[in-house]
UniProtKB/TrEMBL annotation, chain A:
The keyword RNA-binding does not apply. PANTHER family: HEMOGLOBIN FAMILY MEMBER, HEMOGLOBIN SUBUNIT EPSILON. This is Globin domain-containing protein. One of its GO terms (molecular function) is metal ion binding. GO terms for biological process: hydrogen peroxide catabolic process. It comes from Perca flavescens (American yellow perch).
UniProtKB/TrEMBL annotation, chain B:
One of its GO terms (cellular component) is blood microparticle. Belongs to the globin family. One of its GO terms (biological process) is hydrogen peroxide catabolic process. GO terms for molecular function: haptoglobin binding; heme binding; iron ion binding; organic acid binding; oxygen binding; oxygen carrier activity; peroxidase activity. The keyword Hydrolase does not apply. Coiled coil: none annotated. CDD domains: Hb-alpha-like. It comes from the Eukaryota. This is Globin domain-containing protein. PANTHER family: HEMOGLOBIN FAMILY MEMBER, HEMOGLOBIN SUBUNIT ZETA.
Length: 147, 143
C-alpha cells in the first residue's frame, strides 16, 4: 500500500480542485502526440494529426484529453487504493486498447509540464515530487493487469 | 531522432531568451532535481548545503547552464564539442548517465514554469531532442 504524507494528500487535492480540465486535458494529450509522435499510433481515427497546429486544434484530441484527465479523478478520490481503483481500466488498456504501458509515463510527463506551466512558481520541487509520485502510482496501477 | 534544422533553430531561438535568466533557470532546475529525485543528492554529499536556493546549488546551476550554452554553440557536432565535458563526467565525476535524463526533465519543467507561453509543444519537442542528444554526447567517453 502506498503511504501518503499529509502534504502529499493536500497537494493532490489542491491541484485537482483547481484543475481546468478542458484546458489541461487537451493540452497534455496534444503535447504528448506532438513531442512523442509515435503515440499517434493509437489515434488512427482521430483525423488530422499531420502537424502540431492540427493536433492542437483537433476537437477529438481535445475531447479525449478531457476524458483522460477526468479519469484521474477516481485516483484522487481513492488515494489509499489506487491499484484496485484502476483494475478495470488496466484490463481495458491491455486487452482492448493494446496500449504499450510505456506510453503512460510519456503522457504523465507531458501532464506534469502542462500543470507546471499553469502553476508557475507555485509548482515548487515539493509540489512536483507529490504530483509525480501520484502519477507514478496511477501509471503503475494502469500497467498492473497486463500479462 | 537526430536534430533537424528546425530543431536547431528552435533551440537557439529560445536559448537566447533563456540565457538572460540562465543562472536562475540552472539553480532552480538543479534545486528541483535534488528535491524530486533525492537519489541525485548522493553526488553532492560534499556540499555543506543542498537545499534549493543555497550557494552551492546556485553556483553549480550556473556551471551546468554554462555547459548547455556551450552545447548550443556546438549544436552541429555535439560529440566533438562536448568531448572534454564527456571525459570529465566519465572519468572524474562518474555520474550514472541515467541521471542526465532526470536533470533534463527538471530543466524542461523549469522552462515550462518560467516561460509558459514560449515553451510550446514544438519548442518542448526540440528541447527534448536536444537534451537527449547532449546526454548522448556526454556519455560518449564512458566506455
Amino acid at each position: 500500500m502506498v503511504e501518503w504524507t499529509d502534504f502529499e494528500r493536500a497537494t493532490i487535492a489542491d491541484i485537482f480542485s483547481k484543475m481546468q480540465y478542458e484546458v489541461v486535458g487537451p493540452a497534455a494529450l496534444a503535447r504528448c502526440l506532438i513531442v512523442y509522435p509515435w503515440t499517434q499510433r493509437y489515434f488512427g481515427n482521430f483525423g488530422n494529426l499531420y502537424n502540431a497546429a492540427a493536433i492542437s486544434g483537433n476537437p477529438m484530441v481535445a475531447k479525449h484529453g478531457t476524458t483522460i484527465l477526468h479519469g484521474l479523478d477516481r485516483a484522487v478520490k481513492n488515494m489509499d487504493d489506487i491499484k484496485a481503483t484502476y483494475t478495470e481500466l488496466s484490463v481495458l488498456h491491455s486487452e482492448k486498447l493494446h496500449v504499450d504501458p510505456d506510453n503512460f509515463k510519456l503522457l504523465s510527463d507531458c501532464l506534469t509540464i502542462v500543470v507546471a506551466a499553469q502553476l508557475g512558481n507555485d509548482f515548487t520541487g515539493e509540489v512536483q515530487a507529490a504530483f509525480q509520485k501520484f502519477l507514478a502510482v496511477v501509471v503503475s496501477s494502469l500497467g498492473r493487469q497486463y500479462h | 531522432m537526430s536534430l533537424s534544422d528546425k530543431d536547431k533553430t528552435a533551440v537557439k531561438a529560445l536559448w537566447g531568451k533563456i540565457s538572460k535568466s540562465a543562472d536562475v533557470v540552472g539553480a532552480e532546475a538543479l534545486g528541483r532535481m535534488l528535491v524530486v529525485y533525492p537519489q541525485t543528492k548522493t553526488y553532492f554529499a560534499h556540499w555543506p548545503d543542498m537545499s534549493p536556493g543555497s550557494e552551492p546549488v546556485k553556483a553549480h546551476g550556473k556551471k551546468v547552464m554554462g555547459g548547455l550554452t556551450l552545447a548550443v554553440s556546438k549544436i552541429d557536432d555535439l560529440k566533438a564539442g562536448l568531448l572534454e565535458l564527456s571525459e570529465q563526467h566519465a572519468f572524474t565525476l562518474r555520474v550514472d548517465p541515467a541521471n542526465f535524463k532526470i536533470l533534463s526533465h527538471c530543466i524542461l519543467v523549469e522552462l515550462a514554469t518560467i516561460f509558459p507561453k514560449e515553451f510550446t509543444p514544438e519548442a518542448h519537442l526540440s528541447y527534448d531532442k536536444f537534451f537527449t542528444a547532449v546526454a548522448l554526447a556526454l556519455a560518449e567517453r564512458y566506455r
